[in-house]
Here is the input.
Amino acid sequence: MDAAAPLDIDPLLDDPKTRIVVCCGSGGVGKTTTAAALGLRAAERGRKVVVLTIDPARRLAQSMGIDSLDNTPRRVKGVDGDGELHAMMLDMKRTFDEIVEAHADPERARAILSNPFYQSLSAGFAGTQEYMAMEKLGQLRARDAWDLIIVDTPPSRSALDFLDAPKRLGSFLDGKFIRLLMAPAKMGGRAGMKFLNVGMSMMTGTLGKLLGGQLLRDVQTFVAAMDTMFGGFRTRADATYRLLQAPGTAFLVVAAPERDALREAAYFVERLAADSMPLAGLVLNRVHGSGAARLSAERALAAAEHLEEGPGEGPGEGSGEGPGESPGEHPPGENPSGENLVDGRIVDQGPGKAEDRGTGGSSPEAPSALSPTGPEDEDGGPEDQDGVSVDRLTAGLLRLHAERMQVLAREQRTRDRFTALHPEVPVAEVAALPGDVHDLAGLRAIGERLAAQEEQAGAL
Here is the structure.
C-alpha cells in the first residue's frame, strides 16, 4: 500500500497567511505537546506566536520554564532566533466574565457576575469550556498582537465537542429555554408558580437542587440583566465559526497509532470536510520503531526457542521425525526465507558475505556469535560473569524484539486502514520518546522531527 504524503510543517508555519493553527483530536494523544512544539518552532523561525492551551495539568508551563499560566499571555524565555513565543492557559470562568464586562455597563455587569445562576453557568455548564476556548481565540485574533495563534483544543470524550460548542451555547443563551424560564415572572403571581411547577418541574428539578430555593429569582435577575447580550453570543458564535473556516486557519488532527484514536481522527477528518474547514494533515504521535526491523518477530521467536532448548535438543528430537526435521519444517540448508540462519541459529556475518549453507550446520564445538566460549552453567551453556546463561539472556532479548515487532506490525496495519480511508491527508509521524517532554530542548526536538518528514519518507 502506498504511504501517505508527508506533512510539510515548515512551509505551513512560515507562511504569513497562516494565522491560526488548531491542534485537535481525542484526549491523551499529545495535543498539548504538539501545539507547544509547533509554537516554539514557529517562533524560532521568526514568527510572533501565542499558544493557547486548555490543558489543566500545566505541563506546557513546566516545559516552557514558566511557573504558571493563566488567562494572560506570558512570554517564554530561552527562544532562539528573532521571533517571540507567548503562552497562556484558558481560564474558562474569567473569559466568560470578560465577555460580560466588555458588553454590559458596570452596574449590570456587577449584577450578572454576582448572580448564582450565572456563576453556575460560567463554571460548569456543558460546553462552556469549548465555547470559551473559541471566544478567547476570537479575542486574541482581534487584538492582532500575534501573527500566529496555536490552539490546543480541550480534552474531551469526543473530538468534535469544540466545533459544536459555540453554536450550542449560543443557542442556549439566545434560545427558547431561557425565555421559557422567564415566563413565570411575566405571567406573575401564583399562576406563574403553578405553571412552573406543572409544566417545568422535570426541567428545573436539577437546577433547583443545584441552586436552592432562589432558583426562579436568580434566573429572573440573570435573564433581565443579560437580555441585551443574548444576541451577542449568537453573533460571536457565528463569527468564530467563520474564523475557523477562513483560509488563514489550518487544522492539524493529532492521534496515536491506536485503533480508537485513529477512528476518532478519521471521523474528525470527515467532519472538517463536511464543514468546509481547512485540514492541513494528521500528526501521528508515539510511533514505535526498531533498529533491527529486518529481523521479523517470527524468526526472533524461532531463534529464542532454539536457544532455550539447550545443546543436544535440536528440532525434531523425541518427535518421531527424521533427524533435524519436524513437521512442516525445511531441513538445514534449505531455508526458503533466505535469512541468515545456519542450523536454526542467527549467525554474525560480515558485510556482503554469506555463510556456507551446504555444510549442514556447524559443529557443537565451534563457537558462534551467540554462544561465546566461557564458563558453562549446569545445563552446559556458556555463562557470563554474573553466572547468567548467555543463551538464555539472548533468548530473552529476542523475545523482547519479537514483541516490539508485533507492536510495529499492529501500528502499521492501523495506519494503513486510516490511509486507505483518507489517502488525501498528509501525515507526519513522531517517534515515541522514552519519557515525557519537560523542557524547551524536548519541544525543540519534537519540532525537528515534525519538520523532517520528507527526509524520513525519502529514506524509506
Notes: Residues 185-196, 312-374 have pLDDT under 50 and may be disordered. The first strand starts at residue 20 and ends at 24. Strands lie at 20-24, 48-53, 74-75, 84-89, 148-152, 249-255, 279-287, 341-342, 345-346, 427-431.
